What does this fold into?
Amino acid sequence: MVELAISGLLVGWELTLQGRGRRDWAAAG
It folds into this structure.
């Protein structure tokens, strides 16, 4: 259950960051 919740949060976060700019996320990652 915990892993599923974390996975969902990561997906939502990625989608949100996608709207801003994926370059920053790629550079940070």
About this structure: The mean pLDDT is 79. Residues 2-20 form the longest helix (19 residues).
